[in-house]
């Protein structure tokens, strides 16, 4: 793993002491006679250029590698920020040719991994929809702004289709739980239930009334941008309004966008791989990195009583899944 982050931190710190280096050069002749000499004005300008270039990637890496907050819904926005920076830097050949050349080279490397947007995990885009400040509008806007019109249109349809399939899948579990609850009610309301069923049938004929949660959520105005906005709390409050979407949001927003936490994102290779452990399999290295992050992470204060009700609901929702029950019974027998 490269040490570009160390280079960035070193240069950023050195720039703050530019005058001190100049003063040292004037007062200490031995310093000026060192191999390579003292940094001149061109060196300082190049350092400023490198810091400007690396700062974007340093900050974005920290954001998307966090392990204590939601990252899945922000990755596509950060991806758009990188593309926008490339376009801006590559257009400044006259003013800053060094920055422009670095941007051209970096974009070529970046596109090797993320150039084909159609190969991105579709959940990267679906997660954006579950940010009430962005919803589907941001996905459509970002794709049309930075990619070909046909590619954007095709991917937008694919994202919509994936969201619909997710909703239908989660609706099955949700409806099954509701049906089991209704079956346990008193059996003295057959006539009332019959009349209500007729009422439901007639009302469903009205297309304006027959909107599912997805339609309602997407057609409602987006939330305004606020630095203190808590996306998890928003879904907790609105889960009664969007019960099925709330279940999807709970799972989608819980996904880490990076497999390595920010605490281990920089210079991890030297701590995990060494001359004595250079033949470890990828799975073993991944396990070591994850375990290292868990063991070294700062403790989080969690109020168990506050989340007890949510945990009980989660157990009830997972109970109908046979594969999970089989796994739990096997664990208990062991």
TrEMBL record:
HAT C-terminal dimerisation domain boundaries: 213-295
Annotated GO MF terms: DNA binding; protein dimerization activity
Record-annotated hAT-like transposase RNase-H fold domain positions: 65-170
Record's protein name: HAT C-terminal dimerisation domain-containing protein
